[in-house]
Amino acid sequence: MTRFAAVAVVAVAFGGCGRDAGDRADRPAPPEAEAEVAARVMIVEPADGAEVDAGPLLVVMETEGVEIVAAGNMDAGTGHHHLIVDADVDWTLPIPNDPGVHYHMGQAQKEFTLADLAPGRRRIIAVVADGVHIPLDPPVSDTITVVVR
Question: What is the mean pLDDT of each run of 10 residues along the chain (149 residues)?
């Protein structure tokens, strides 16, 4: 909770003393009292479990609670996309740049075409990272599996 929100809660608690509960019931909650949306990323295309033909595969991502910006931007509440294929994520280190495994979308892209997936079962992880490629904390990621024919 931010300091401003904590002060607002205390002010509301003391300001309401001696009033009838009905006086507050008709008033909407102040914007500070609304819950923050947790950041998340979703791979919306292809679907988890999809069987796809060999060849280029378009991966489309959507986010909530985080603004997708170009790499290098370190503003709070922002990040950029990465895709990791058939590998694990080290949540404390910058995502490496390994062709065929780690893909960086440093120009604020929200979709990426994987051109080199080998046939077989493939795990694709979408990760939102900060301006220097370190995964956001708490992690903002989504994982799907596809079968490339």
Answer: 41 42 48 67 98 96 98 97 98 94 97 94 98 98 98
Three-state SS at 112: strand
Q: Are strands 67-68 and 102-105 parallel, antiparallel or unpaired?
A: unpaired
Beta-carbon count within 10 A of 30 CB: 12
Alpha-carbon distance of 28 to 121, in angstroms, equals 50
**Which uninterrupted H or E stretch holds 124?**
strand 120-129
Alpha helices in 83-144 (DSSP H): none
d(CA 104, CA 42): 16
Residue 90 buriedness (CB in 10 A; 0-12 / 13-18 / 19+): exposed
Task: Name the 3-class secondary structure at 110.
Answer: coil
Q: Which two tokens stand for residue 49?
A: 């479990």
- The Cα 70–Cα 108 span in angstroms is 5
3-state secondary structure of 137: coil
